[in-house]
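Saturday, quiet lab. Running sequence design on the structure tokens for the scaffold JK sent over.
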């Protein structure tokens, strides 16, 4: 399988990554160790830091956008003002898992909340699922649609929704619409489509309760992930076990860049 992503090195609070033909240095708060080869980092195409506000160095060396493929999914990348590129490569193992899991049934409906640029949406669609993709930012929903088209999924049954997650979930409950699987990666702090404020420590329990209310009578899985500092694997496992006691198995772990650089946690609850 083609893979245009590589973690070259990490340390001193940063990560050195390759995305296709371009190498980038960006912040990585958990990389508290020393880099293996700090001198090699000087060859990076561009760097981004937050030492004096959000700032790129060498951004002119990057194209306005470029495409890569990883975990069997093609992405359009672009250097944003916040240092993001339109991909979280630490989710690659989750995308592979999603694709295989939805393929276990002939028909599966998947809801992807806080869905960003659509990696999980595309993985579920590649596995044959019907998908509802939701993000509060219209621009990100459009970006995800373009990624779906890059993967030949422009005609696949995917609903594209720009809305506040809680408002949407409450409407789905009233409508009686149900899903066999729900994927969610809620922000530590975020704003909804109309300025609604989301704080994970305050709102996660309500989110999970609403997710429980939109699950079908024979659900397949719930996949939760988070980049919130201090939210450990055990915390993720505890909240998923409590919110979804019908799960036959619950597995939690760290999401990794490369083999040894942690970047968030995941928890899979399988029914």
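Result came back. Writing it out in full:
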């Amino acid at each position: 399988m083609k893979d245009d992503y590589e973690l070259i090195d990490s340390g001193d609070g940063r990560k050195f990554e390759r995305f296709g033909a371009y190498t980038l240095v960006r912040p990585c708060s958990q990389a508290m160790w020393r880099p293996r080869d700090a001198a090699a980092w000087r060859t990076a195409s561009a760097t981004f830091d937050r030492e004096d506000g959000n700032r790129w160095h060498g951004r002119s060396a990057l194209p306005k956008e470029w495409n890569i493929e990883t975990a069997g999914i093609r992405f359009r990348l672009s250097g944003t003002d916040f240092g993001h590129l339109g991909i979280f490569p630490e989710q690659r193992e989750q995308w592979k898992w999603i694709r295989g899991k939805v393929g276990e049934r002939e028909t599966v409906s998947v809801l992807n909340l806080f869905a960003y640029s659509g990696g999980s949406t595309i993985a579920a669609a590649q596995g044959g699922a019907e998908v509802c993709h939701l993000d509060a930012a219209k621009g990100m929903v459009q970006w995800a649609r373009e990624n779906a088209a890059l993967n030949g999924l422009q005609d696949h049954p995917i609903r594209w929704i720009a809305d506040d997650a809680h408002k949407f979930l409450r409407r789905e409950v009233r409508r009686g619409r149900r899903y066999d699987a729900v994927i969610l990666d809620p922000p530590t702090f975020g704003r909804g489509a109309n300025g609604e404020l989301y704080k994970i420590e305050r709102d996660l329990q309500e989110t999970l309760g609403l997710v429980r209310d939109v699950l079908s009578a024979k659900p397949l899985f719930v996949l939760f992930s988070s980049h919130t500092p201090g939210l450990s694997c055990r915390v993720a496992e505890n909240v998923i076990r409590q919110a979804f006691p019908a799960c036959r198995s619950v597995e939690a772990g760290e999401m990794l860049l490369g083999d040894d650089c942690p970047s968030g946690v995941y928890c899979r609850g399988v029914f």
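Notes for JK: Residues 13 and 31 are 5 Å apart (CA to CA). Helices lie at 92-102, 119-126, 138-150, 165-175, 200-213, 233-243. Ask whether to fix the surface positions before the next round.
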